[in-house]
Amino acid sequence: MSQEILTLRSEVERLEAEIERFSQEKELASVKLNELKNQPDPPPQITESEPESSSDSESEAPPAPIYHNHFDPEVARILEEANRATKKSSPQETANILYENIFRFTGITAFPINKALLSADEEIFGIRFDTYSNHERRFVAPHYVILKKIPHEKEPNHHRWSVFRHTLPVYIPVNEAESVLEYGQEEIDKSVVKFSKLIYGYLSQTQMKHDIFAAVSSNPHIRRVEKDLACHRVRLFLESGQELVIHCDSTSVISAEVVGNSELSNACEAVLTTDIAGLEGALVRVLGMLHR
User: What are 114-141's pLDDT values in tens digits?
Assistant: First the structure.
């Protein structure tokens, strides 16, 4: 019991440190945003044909925004392409970039569509999903879903949203998630919110599993970790020669075994069958059991 208390206490301390770091980053972004708002309007922009005055001006220029690949060329061509010409960003543009980075912390944001590729009566809507890796302390590559409005099958006079294109991983049950979009006209906006939260839940839970197994891989008792993209099946090869196999669904551990040892398998499974939030502490306890 005392070991469990120590484990929980260390986890609480780690989470408190993470929250403090996020608070500091948010406060810094807000201060910089307020500074930009208070700046006077910039003078007319220098054209590209006019040379820059010196390297000092280059060092003062704000960093360029990060651009993401969209994986699927069919998705990339219907996204609104940003103007990537070399130019100075105005304070307003820099402020907009800061706003966007702040909104990314919510995990779900909209993105613009290249309307030139649409017919006049088409209506599509884009959603970007950002997940944060606590282990790597950075956002991982975002995923995109493009929704298109189509006539409702059960109510021909009404419309609903359907998945038109996406860059989601293969383990995300897109068809299952899309079923929540099949609501009546009065629920169309609520269905998009529910769909977005469902997709983000799958992505964030999977990222949490990756972070947990990446963290425990540094344990001196572990020689190697093998896992699939969804972390449904994870193999931990121990320095003792034992192999621990863990099976997970999207939210919890469903089974575990020590290969070739049914007695240890039962003991380990009893500890590891928990939700994802409690998995890291359970793994530490199991590794201690196997090291004895």
Answer: 777 777 778 888 999 999 999 999 889 9
Residue 290 carries which side chain, given as an amino acid letter?
A: L
Asked if 124 and 113 count as a contact pair (C-beta separation under 8 A), the reply is yes
Using an 8 Å Cβ cutoff, are 256 and 204 in contact? no
Q: Which tokens go with 100? A: 């966007």
Out of 180, 199, 216, pick the residue that ends a domain. Answer: 216
49 Cβ contact partners less than 8 Å away, ≥ 6 residues apart: none
DSSP type of residue 60: H
pLDDT tens, position by position, 188-246: 778 899 999 999 999 999 999 999 999 999 999 999 999 999 999 999 999 999 999 99
- Residue 142 in domain: yes
Same domain, 163 and 78: yes
Alpha-helix runs per DSSP H in the chain: 2-37, 55-60, 73-76, 91-104, 174-178, 188-216, 262-272, 279-291
Amino acid at 10: S
Nearest to 270 by CA among 243, 289, 292, 242: 289
DSSP one-letter code for 170:
T
* Residue 183: Cβ-neighbour burial (10 angstroms; 0-12, 13-18, 19+): buried
Same structural domain, 76 and 198: yes
Would you give the DSSP letter of residue 158?
A: S
CB 253 within 8 A of CB 247: yes
| Residues found in the chain | 292
Tell me the β-bridge partners of 132.
139
Q: Which domain holds residue 277?
A: 219-291
Of 216, 235, 254, which marks where a domain is finished? 216
